[in-house]
Specification:
By secondary structure, the chain is of the alpha/beta class. The chain has 4 domains: 3-55 and 62-281, Alpha-Beta Barrel (TIM Barrel); 301-376 and 531-561 and 576-676, 3-Layer(aba) Sandwich (Rossmann fold), CATH 3.40.50.1700; 394-526, Galactose-binding domain-like (Jelly Rolls, Sandwich); 692-809, Immunoglobulins (Immunoglobulin-like), CATH 2.60.40. Helices cover 23% and strands 25% of the residues. It is built from 19 helices and 37 strands. Strand 14 (404-409) and strand 15 (415-421) form a beta hairpin. The protein binds beta-D-glucopyranose. This is Glycosyl hydrolase.
Length: 812
């Protein structure tokens, strides 16, 4: 639909009806306008899958690896395929707008939503995001580039004022969004935070940079509940306030327009953009059913499994301990709690309910069945609060079926509604008129005698009973406005009580529903922790008798999640002890790290191999087993530099001072900061081993390049190792003697090539002209400094194999 047609539609509406369209009709839907042929558009989180309109564990979704894993792919074709998978999921669930990808940066390793972002580098983030966006939108489903901009950490995220110089904004934090706009993204989400004094939903960056400079013609949607004023946000280039129906726009915006405080043309422009979006996603004009591309459930699973392997990063492989040869194994020890209960995704608005999860333990057992014995030792229990009860150990007290009973009661305790559900965590229990209390109850059959921990989560008045014992009865006032905490991951209050093995108990959690306290309610339970020393000894004994020991360690929902930043990079203490004990017992110890972001690995030189699996999504175990047993090469390269210790990391700050968070490091984020300080990280950006070896033989680079033209490099390599493999050839730039400040070196492009053992291959890397330019704050324009640059070709930001000069001449 062209602009004239859109204008004609806008002209048909009076002010009230136009303004009505600019606030959501519900939490996830936009308003419909049947007279224009406009249907409601459905939005859904999030990056790792498409949850759909409701937060219901029975409505399952395909779960991708976390964004940090996708950042490790360095494979734009695969990313586009994953984007198509997200689109297929969106269509299956009636969703028009996917609230992904997240294009914020891994500025600090402590960032709570690190797992949901791709990389510390703006160029890699931009390429990764653009490829995913192309895939999503190729099927007529909208993608949303979020959170615009500088929402790189979580502390005080609703109010923090990020102070970042103009040039740094353009070159580092805005750059991935610019790439998204070039890729044709249909929505951009304005973040909660402020940048340089203005909250992002009212920021001049929306009109001046996003729309005027970059020519973005889509919709700027607010982050959920990020609109807190009427005039400022409406006058800025924000287009759609979500969620609804209540928002500071709605009727107040009509009044502001009538009072002459917001020009009506501004409203018209917003409506025009919304209609354009509707036309793009098939929500305007005659209804045409959207079809789901025919890959099918099995096809999706195969793609996700392939992605787990392609994203996993092999950091160390002493004496080529990996891949394990199944024919040479008779006993394998699989150790650690994350082997049987991997963490497949990060917490918060991005969460989805996968149909099922393939655990590493199950996948290894099935791959080695009939060949080798798999011995499992869980190791010590982690020191974390109990998790939500599950159908594995609970039944609905009414029907006896696996799960829990969720009831809604009126003020007199009369039942208004009851249903069996599959999780003790209910972010959005069904609501019915007159509901006063949510109750979650279950019959729990303890598998162990000892002191169990129970928990109830939510805000407001809550009680927790186990049989006739009242463990908790108190009011827990809401202390935050953060929607992710209020509606998704409310804090848990815990209490302990002794239970006897196999003697069932009736557990009942109740929470009063008061306006503003959110709907999320949780019933959690955790068994007594086994003796730490005995658990370590059991793990060491299992490792001792095995041909290889695979130890799975990782973070939990309590350390990485939306709404808060991390305070430490250390794994739970018992994990460090566990790896040390296992490595001491078996020299062929392989550690698999299951985290969304960096963790400290103080024992990293004591294990034979070290593999990062990230949060691998639903096919976790299948993909990891493929890598461990050599059916697939670990294809990932680090999208972010990993520190040996938090104390070494040059940029860590996430805590605002007096409301402000200055990005004092300027352009020097990630590996650039490490290079500038001269410190050595544990693993550099770009690092990752495959199962073969490569020799960089020579590089062809044109000696001269005209300003504004791409530079094409030809890198000749040979696979000198024992098997076929894929190599990611990386190119960095440096500019000695630059007249403007520059990073020591910065990432400028890459190409991935594959070759059989012994084969030669040429990687063609194109360095785009944008890699050389800098933002001139004085001229408010991009400039390219003529002169000699150095092209550095290597395997990571810290492993440069060859270097060539190229002289950039002024524009012809
Ligand atoms: C998050 C967004 C998300 C939105 C809707 C917000 O709290 O920051 O990423 O899309 O909620 O769930």
């Amino acid at each position: 639909m062209n602009d004239e047609q859109l204008d004609r539609l806008v002209d048909k509406l009076g002010l009230d009806r136009k303004v009505r369209l600019l606030t959501g009709a519900t939490t996830w839907r936009t308003a419909a306008e049947p007279d224009l042929g406009l249907r409601a558009m459905v939005c859904s989180d999030g990056p790792a899958g498409v949850r759909g309109e409701s937060w219901d564990e029975r409505r399952t979704s395909a779960l991708l690896p976390s964004a940090s894993a996708l950042g490790a792919l360095w494979d734009e074709e695969l990313l586009t395929e994953l984007g198509r998978l997200l689109a297929a999921e969106a269509i299956r669930k009636g969703v028009h707008v996917v609230l992904a990808p997240t294009l914020n940066l891994h500025r600090s390793p402590l960032g709570g939503r690190h797992f949901e972002c791709f990389s510390e580098d703006p160029e890699l983030t931009g390429r990764t995001g653009a490829a995913l966006i192309r895939g999503i939108q190729s099927q007529g489903v909208a993608a949303t580039a979020k959170h615009f901009v500088a929402n790189d950490s979580e502390t005080d995220r609703l109010t923090v004022d990020v102070r970042v110089p103009d040039r740094v904004l353009r070159e580092v934090y805005l750059a991935p969004f610019e790439r998204a706009v070039e890729a044709g993204v249909w929505l951009v989400m304005a973040a909660y935070n402020s940048v340089n004094g203005t909250t992002m939903t009212a920021s001049p960056l929306l009109a001046e940079v996003l729309k005027a400079h970059w020519g973005f013609d889509g919709v700027v949607v607010s982050d959920w509940a990020a609109v807190r004023t009427t005039r400022e946000t409406a006058r800025a280039a924000l287009d759609l306030a979500m969620p609804g129906p209540d928002s500071p726009w709605a009727t107040s915006l009509t009044d502001a327009v009538r009072a002459g405080e917001v020009p009506e043309q501004a409203v018209d422009d917003k409506v025009r953009r919304l209609l354009r979006l509707a036309a793009r996603v098939g929500a305007l004009g005659p209804h045409r059913p959207r079809t789901v591309p025919a890959r099918g459930h099995r096809g999706h699973r195969a793609l996700l499994r392939r992605t787990v392997a392609a994203a996993s990063v092999l950091l160390r492989n002493h004496d080529d301990v990996l891949p394990l040869d199944p024919a040479a194994l008779s006993t394998v020890a699989v150790i650690g709690a994350h082997a049987a209960t991997p963490r497949t995704q990060g917490g918060g608005s991005a969460e989805v309910h996968p149909t099922g999860t393939v655990t590493p333990l199950d996948a290894l057992r099935s791959a080695l069945r009939g060949r080798a014995r798999v011995v499992h030792a869980p190791g010590p229990a982690l020191d974390v609060p109990p998790g939500p009860v599950t159908p594995d150990h609970c039944t609905d007290p009414r029907s006896g079926a696996p799960g829990v009973l969720v009831r809604l009661l009126d003020g007199d305790g009369r039942e208004l509604h009851a249903e069996r559900r599959l999780s003790g965590r209910q972010p959005e229990p069904t609501l019915v008129a007159g509901a006063h209390t949510v109750e979650i109850s279950a019959l729990l059959r303890p598998h162990t005698t000892g002191t169990w921990t129970f928990g109830v989560g939510g805000f407001g008045r809550m009680t927790l009973r186990v049989d006739d014992r009242t463990l908790l009865d108190d009011a827990f006032p809401r202390q935050t406005d953060d929607p992710a905490i209020v509606h998704v991951t409310p804090p848990l209050r815990t209490a302990r009580t002794p239970l006897t093995s196999l003697r069932p108990v009736h557990v009942v959690a109740r929470r009063e529903l008061l306006p503003g306290d959110g709907r999320a309610t949780v019933l959690a339970a955790g068994p007594p922790a086994p003796d730490v020393r005995a658990a370590l000894a059991e793990a060491a004994a299992a490792a001792d008798g095995a041909d290889a020991a695979i130890v799975f360690v990782g973070t939990t929902e309590h350390s990485e999640g939306e709404g808060h930043d991390r305070t430490s990079l250390a794994l739970d203490g018992s994990y460090d002890d566990l790896v040390r004990a296992v490595a001491a017992a078996n020299p062929r110890t392989i550690a698999v790290v299951n985290s969304g972001g960096p963790v400290e690995l103080p024992w990293r030189d004591r294990v034979a191999a070290l593999l990062l699996s990230w949060f691998p999504g639903q096919e976790a175990g299948a993909g990891i087993a493929d890598v461990l047993l050599g059916r697939a090469e670990p294809g990932g390269r680090l999208p972010t530099t990993w520190a040996a210790r938090l104390a070494d990391a040059p940029v860590t700050g996430t805590r605002p001072t007096r409301g402000q968070l200055p990005y004092d490091e300027g352009l020097h984020v990630g590996y650039r900061a490490w290079l500038r300080t001269g410190r050595e990280p544990a693993y550099w950006f770009g690092h990752g081993l495959g199962y073969t070896r490569w020799e960089y033989e020579s590089v062809d680079v044109p000696p001269l390049a005209a300003e504004g033209s791409p530079i094409a490099l030809r890198v000749h390599l040979r696979n000198t190792g024992p098997r076929a493999g894929r190599e990611v050839v990386q190119v960095y730039l440096a500019r000695p003697g630059s007249t403007v400040e520059r990073p020591r070196r910065w990432f400028a492009g890459y190409a991935a090539v594959g070759a059989e053992a012994g084969q030669r291959v040429t990687a063609e890397v194109v360095v785009e002209p944008r890699a050389l330019r800098h933002w001139s704050t004085r001229d408010q324009e991009w400039r390219t400094e003529p002169g000699t640059y150095r092209l550095l070709v290597g395997r990571s930001a810290g492993d440069i194999r060859c270097e060539r000069p190229v002289t950039v001449t002024g524009a012809p």
